[in-house]
User: Which sequence fits this backbone?
């Protein structure tokens, strides 16, 4: 089935993406969702592959004057990726960067706790991990996540999203074993432009999606 030019919502987008990831089923992958928009995508992929879903706390660091411009991204354990070109352009000092990373790491830890509680992340060593998000724009959170998973000695890491900017695909291909995108528009603007419904995914919605997925898994195992 051919994907639409624009997705209805994240559920439909996740279903199309999941079909493209079917070849990874024998790898018994872990699906790692980037919150919050990546959670509904990850659940659709996990249902198709019969896989486990986990949520990683990760935070993009932006300039107060331009929330769309990523300075860096950091995961809940403090692993970070810097956008050197932005840092150089705005002449941000090492002290400023350290302060931003420290603050964002605390926020990323809070995000991880919100969606996993006291449950630790699984051991990723020697596993195939599919990192799922609802779109790829600058790629900073995906790059920080790749560094995190490499530090965890994951055997194979794949980034997957329904729509991706071409320049970011090229960048991620240097650190991921594979980058799977359903739509690769020649003229990429924002992720939301490729969805009819791109409503924000709130914390309550994330919990509802994860709880529903857990119930389906439990029923299937019974």
Assistant:
């Amino acid at each position: 089935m051919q994907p639409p030019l624009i997705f209805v919502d994240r559920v439909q987008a996740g279903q199309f993406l999941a079909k493209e990831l079917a070849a990874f089923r024998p790898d018994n992958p872990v699906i790692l969702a980037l919150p919050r928009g990546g959670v509904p995508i990850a659940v659709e992929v996990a249902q198709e592959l019969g896989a486990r879903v986990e949520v990683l706390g990760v935070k993009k660091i932006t300039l107060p004057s331009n929330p769309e411009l990523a300075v860096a991204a950091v995961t809940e354990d403090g692993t970070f990726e810097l956008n050197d070109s932005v840092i150089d352009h705005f002449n941000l000092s090492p002290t400023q960067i350290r302060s931003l990373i420290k603050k964002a790491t605390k926020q990323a830890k809070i995000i991880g706790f919100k969606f996993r509680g006291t449950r630790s992340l699984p051991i990723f060593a020697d596993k195939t991990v599919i990192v799922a998000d609802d779109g790829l724009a600058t790629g900073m959170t995906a790059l920080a996540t790749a560094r995190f998973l490499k530090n965890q000695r994951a055997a194979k890491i794949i980034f997957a999203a329904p729509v991706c900017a071409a320049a970011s695909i090229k960048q991620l291909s240097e650190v991921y074993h594979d980058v799977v995108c359903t739509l690769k528009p020649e003229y990429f603007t924002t992720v939301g432009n490729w969805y009819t419904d791109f409503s924000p995914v709130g914390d309550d919605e994330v919990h509802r999606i994860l709880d529903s997925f857990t119930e389906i898994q439990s029923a299937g195992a019974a």
In short: The longest helix spans residues 94-116. The longest strand covers residues 66-75. The two ends are 32 Å apart (CA to CA).
